[in-house]
Design a protein that fits this description.
The chain is an all-alpha fold. It is 57% helix and 0% strand. Helix 2 runs antiparallel to helix 3.
Length: 203
């Protein structure tokens, strides 16, 4: 039923579909603290892409107690040694949106539009530990089946992007391909035990 709904939604959004795409059947849902830690790290990465000095971001990570959630690629950003361009880091907003939806911070995960202004409203005011504690308390993970269904849709949409590219067609859908890729990456991370840098998404 999950795959049938994904294919229906993919066609409705204007993406070509591949009915032979394997369905993800095994997975474990991350615990809430791990998801919140990952959201906080992504928020810092987005801040660095928007002009936050890396050393300030690094200090905030230490003060918030989330240093263990920082991936190696993100450690390089905080150390000022990353060659990842700011635009690439800003793509993480879509990953943050997907995780925020999975943590019930946002009502919907609409693959027909980019992340909304609610992202800044929630993550733009985490200057002290009280804000972090309030965020943890507010979050409530959605059911495994809900996250799996969203991830499966993202996988189908990603495959549609690849199909269109192979056929020489313009990217399908109403959003940039990277929106789909980043959301899929975040959702796949939620459903396995790999490190953030180790989650590789292929169409």
């Amino acid at each position: 039923m999950i795959r049938q709904r994904s294919l229906f939604m993919a066609r409705r959004l204007g993406y070509p579909v591949d009915v032979s795409l394997p369905l993800m059947v095994d997975g474990v849902l991350r615990d809430k603290d791990a998801v919140v830690d990952r959201m906080l790290v992504l928020d810092v990465m987005i801040g660095c892409a928007s002009g936050l000095p890396p050393e300030i971001g690094a200090d905030w990570v230490e003060e918030s107690g989330i240093a263990g959630a920082v991936a190696p690629s993100e450690e390089r950003v905080l150390a000022g040694r990353s060659d990842e361009v700011p635009v690439r880091l800003l793509d993480r907003m879509e990953a943050l949106w997907a995780l925020g939806w999975a943590a019930s911070l946002f009502r919907t995960l609409d693959f027909g539009r980019i992340c909304g202004p609610e992202l800044a409203m929630i993550f733009g005011d985490l200057e002290d530990l009280r804000g972090v504690r309030a965020l943890r308390k507010r979050c409530k993970l959605r059911r495994y089946e809900e996250v799996l269904a969203a991830c499966d849709l993202a996988r189908c949409l990603h495959r549609g992007i690849v199909i269109a590219d192979k056929n020489g067609a313009a990217p399908p859908g109403k959003v940039q391909p990277q929106v789909i890729v980043e959301r899929r990456r975040a959702l796949e991370w939620m459903l396995n035990d790999q490190g953030w840098d180790d989650v590789v998404v292929r169409g």
